[in-house]
Amino acid sequence: MRPIAALASAPGLGGVALIRLSGEGVYALADRLAPRLSPPPSERPAGSFAHATLVDEAGRTLDDAVLLFYRAPRSYTGEDTVELCVHGGEVVPRAVLDALFRLGAAPAGPGEFTRRAFLNGRLDLTQAEAVADLVAARTPRAERAARANLQGRLADALHPLYADALALSAEVEHLLDFDEGELPDAFRDDASGRVRALAARADALLATWREGRLTRQGALVVLAGRPNAGKSTLLNLLLGYDRAIVSDEPGTTRDTLEETLDLDGVPVRLTDTAGLRDAPGAVERQGVARARDLIARADAVLYLLAPGEPADAAPAGAIALRAKADLPPAAPDGMPAISATRAPEAARATALRLLREALRIGAGDPDAATLATERQYALLAEAARALAAAGAALARGELGLVPAAQALRDAARAVGEILGKVYSEDLLDTLFARFCVGK
Ligand SMILES: Nc1nc2c(ncn2[C@@H]2O[C@H](COP(=O)(O)OP(=O)(O)OP(=O)(O)O)[C@@H](O)[C@H]2O)c(=O)[nH]1
Ligand SMILES: [Mg+2]
Which ligand has the nearest atom to the CA of 233? Predict the structure, then answer.
């Protein structure tokens, strides 16, 4: 493939910038960029480095650089690659890149190096997606999850699912060779059992999406309750600073207010809302509508019960928490209760504990395979549906064999697409569009 070049390090001020050059003929380009280096780059062994003066076509010095030499297939992309460590900043990397472009290299598109690594079989698509996740990780937990998939955890779980579904499809088809009535029941029962086992493996992986999504995209947590229940007070307490206005006037918070909290490595979007009531004013009414909308979309709702408010006032699925436990009526009803003013530390700890439980953060093995993208989740859900269809078809006896075999192939295809065994240029375009240039 044609040579491409891009800045691989972040643009802006920095000691060193890394320029990556990959593709067919990059050594000829490097020879022309470092003409005084002896022996020239094209005669240097893979895995070596050299210090060289880079010049433009007029012989003018561009920079002193360190060149790293890789040879196909032992490079990130699987192609001949030269990496140039040049001085950082705005000017030097630009000048070196421009010289490379004049020599015939093309500017690399977003993720194009990783795309080539995929096309050259260095990575599968789950690993390529993990590269983007690793770079985008905002917490150590997200970094660990991305690294697990980069090391092939998800792929290791998906490959056997793919192979077993295909093999089973062939075996089910083979049952068609038997004459009517001769079909061995034991064999069909066995096939049904294996379809169920495959479906269980798919379901177990589907269940990791929640953890994968929360770790990467963060969780939406909504503080809700009647006006004056103490929502803004709790928000401030959880954040550790006075973010929201607190007052004994009901209806103080009218707009929604969102801040991020790092909860054991999961970025939590903690949102304070307007107190739920038939609001007298138009602005507050809008606020209440926004609050209801957020409650419907939240990963967890922390509903603060005002003193005396019945426990069933909390919306279904919400975590109900008695607020202002220092005020009457103090009848303990077994609900978790807090007093943000009397015992703020305990209140904070209780709220965080309830959130951890509700979000089930930290329940899973941080190094396990997790579904990491909507694409992976949607395809695996498709495979699970196909496996269910295969099971139902097998239960219909002989007439179901053809559709069962087809459904098993559909399941395999969907899993194969997650791995990139089957792909289209369009898919690669969308998938790599979220990468940065130079990765
Ligand atoms: N006694 C007592 N008062 C509290 C407690 N928590 C909050 N308050 C007080 O209750 C009043 C209302 O608190 P906010 O946090 O503004 O309540 P809110 O739910 O955000 O109210 P709106 O924004 O109007 O919906 C304030 O005067 C707080 O100081 C508590 O645990 N005990
Ligand atoms: Mg408030």
Answer: 1
pLDDT in tens, 71-82: 999 999 999 999
pLDDT at site 332: 67
Q: Could you tell me the end-to-end alpha-carbon distance of the chain, in angstroms, rounded to an integer?
A: 17
User: Domain boundaries in the chain?
Assistant: 4-119, 128-210+371-433, 218-359
Q: Which CATH superfamily is domain 128-210+371-433 in?
A: tRNA modification GTPase MnmE domain 2 (1.20.120.430)
Angle subtended by helix axes 425-433 and 125-136, to nearest 10: 20
pLDDT at residue number 331: 66
Distance 282 CA to ligand 2 centre (A): 17
Please determine, looking at this structure, whether the domain spanning 218-359 carries the CATH number 3.90.1140.10. no
- Centre of ligand 2 to C-alpha 256, Å, is 9
Distance, in Å, from the CA atom of 102 to the CA atom of 54, rounded to the nearest integer, reads 14
pLDDT grade for 314, boundaries at 50, 70 and 90: very high
Phi, psi (rounded to 5 degrees) for 90: -85, -35
Residue 315 burial (10 A CB sphere; 0-12, 13-18, 19+): middle
425 lines ligand 1 (CB under 6 A): no
Q: Is the CB of 227 under 6 A from ligand 1?
A: yes
Each residue's pLDDT tens digit, 104-114: 999 999 999 99
**Position in ligand 1 atom list of the atom nearest CA 340:** 31
**Ligand 1 atom closest to residue 338's alpha carbon, by position in its atom list:** 31
Instruction: Read off the pLDDT band of 199 (50, 70, 90).
Output: very high
Q: Give the Å distance between the CA of 362 and the centre of ligand 2.
A: 30
Q: What is the DSSP letter of 252?
A: -
Report which bound ligand comes closest to the CA of 284: 1
Whether pLDDT at 180 is above 70: no
How far is it, in rounded angstroms, from Cα 35 to Cα 53? Answer: 8
**To which residue do tokens 């003013």 refer?**
341
Ligand 1 neighbour 247 (Cβ under 6 A): yes
Instruction: List the CATH code of the domain at 4-119.
Output: 3.30.1360.120
Which residue owns the Cα nearest ligand 1 atom 7? 230
